[in-house]
Amino acid sequence: MTDFAALIRPDRDEPARTIHLLDKAAAPGWIKAQAGSRRALVEAAGFDGSAGQLLVLPGKDGAEQLDVLLGVTDPGNLTPWCLAGAADKLPPGAYRLADGAQPGLAALGWLLAQHRFERYKSKPAEPKGERVLLSREPARVDEAVRVAGATALVRELVDTPAGDLGPAELEQAVRDLADECGGTLTVTKGDELERGFPMVSAVGGAAVPSRAPRMIELEWGRPDAPRLAVIGKGVCFDSGGLDLKPASGMRLMKKDMGGAAHALALARLIVAERWPVRLHLLIPAVENAVAGGAFRPGDVLQSRAGTRVEIDNTDAEGRLILGDALTRAGEEKPALIVDFATLTGAARVALGPDLPATFVNDEGFAGELLAASKEVHDPLWRMPLWDGYDEMLKSDLADMVNSADGPFAGSITAALFLRRFVPEGTPWAHLDTFAWRPAPRPGRPKGGEALGLRAVHGALKARFVV
């Protein structure tokens, strides 16, 4: 993992290169104020303040320190990613923003632009050296380092091939956190899993013994503090089961544990920031494989809650394991539940890769999530828990089906399925997130991505801490 703390530090007036943030409105005036040779260099380079433009100039009057011009959309309202392109391209050294400006949210992009996941490269890229950002906002520096670490954790877990990251490896990642924070770890496997979490057991029943299913639980914090349940879908690889996915649909299914990665990253932030909560992290970890022990279309599974679910589609497995996890979380009477899951292709059809479909059963909490989303520039899009579609989950044989028979409202019916396992009156949010970036952007390479993590972190922090 990248040492993000080495890439940003408090500004103690040390020598540093200056980054001038200019938009199209301010650039002409700044250029006009420069001396002849510097002005000529800027004009020859065609710099006009367009967002993302980068130009390195020699210092004024022969000074050794360089000046950097960076085009941004709005110098007074920096986004998390407006410094990312510069951080990736500038030469090593220390930098500060001009005119007393502070990086604020943009520190995150500066840090993540310098993160590399090269575990599988036989010849990793030559290190460019550290580009260090100076800031006079110590609290923001610390938070940026923590959030960058959480984001990188999601990316690395999702990017790791399924052959190297199965249920056992997810368990170890949670065990590492428990060891660090002194939390209590409970792992349920084998016969106990079949009795206590029957849908988790059924979904993972076809996996080889070394990738056996399990329910992973971590509790941390004062027992008398408000309980906060954080749940993540941990399908370490999804073949689709007997309703086998096509090759094109299976190619990225190493990322089907992206919900678990988000939940673990959020738990790490909560622990690091010492929130006054009783954290309950739950990760049902399985591989949805194909073998003689696979559950079948038409099977009826009993859930932990006691309800019986008829299987219409074995590729709608994530909601099954989350149903058992939600039931377990509800038994402890939490003040709030949030779950992350790479749950439906329907959410991606509706909203594309960048927007997690967000379902919330509480209007106050929904407003808090959307407000935090805007504040930290981590977009969410609220979707309806439309009661009229509940009938799509009706089964003639059992209490419900796991997948509606038809092409409509797939992400909504999946959320409605989950809602049946949430205790009545308990605020709950479900994020159907993609956990993947299909094309690179500055500070955000192609591959695993944290989508919705910062928004949920901000909303929960405002509710439980601030």
UniProtKB/TrEMBL annotation:
Domain Cytosol aminopeptidase: 313-320
Signal peptide positions (record): none
One Pfam family this sequence matches: Peptidase_M17_N_1
Listed CDD domains: Peptidase_M17
GO molecular function: aminopeptidase activity
Database matches in InterPro entries: Leucine_aapep/pepB, Macro_dom-like, Peptidase_M17_C, Peptidase_M17_N_1
Keywords: Aminopeptidase, Hydrolase, Manganese, Protease
Record bears the keyword Acetylation: no
Domain of life per record: Bacteria
Family assignment from sequence similarity: Belongs to the peptidase M17 family.
PANTHER family documented for this protein: LEUCINE AMINOPEPTIDASE-RELATED (PTHR11963), PEPTIDASE B (PTHR11963:SF20)
Protein name: Leucyl aminopeptidase family protein
Taxonomic classification: Bacteria, Pseudomonadati, Pseudomonadota, Alphaproteobacteria, Sphingomonadales
